[in-house]
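User: H(+)/Cl(-) exchange transporter 7, Cacopsylla melanoneura:
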Amino acid sequence: MPPLPVSYYGALFKNMFTVECSIEFLEEMRTHMSLQVLEKDNQKQFDLTPFVNQHVYFIRSKTSMNHIYRVLRQMGIRTLYVVDDERHLLGIITRKDVVRYKL
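Assistant: Predicted structure for H(+)/Cl(-) exchange transporter 7:
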């Protein structure tokens, strides 16, 4: 079965998440929801340490796409940070970016 065209997904997405309501209704809901938040809920914290990447890989802005592709594949990483000569962050390049370029 062939995949559905992108236009189909766009229409489906709109139908799933479009809601008709007034501004007054939204304000009333916001007030109601904020009243339900307890003070202790504002104090909760999550330890995100297990999810933090301790190893940051970066490349210079003049690096070729072929080299970037090889680094991503060999290192098994999904993102590389692009920096200038002073190591200031210029952007992030992902596997998807490289694949789009290769096509």
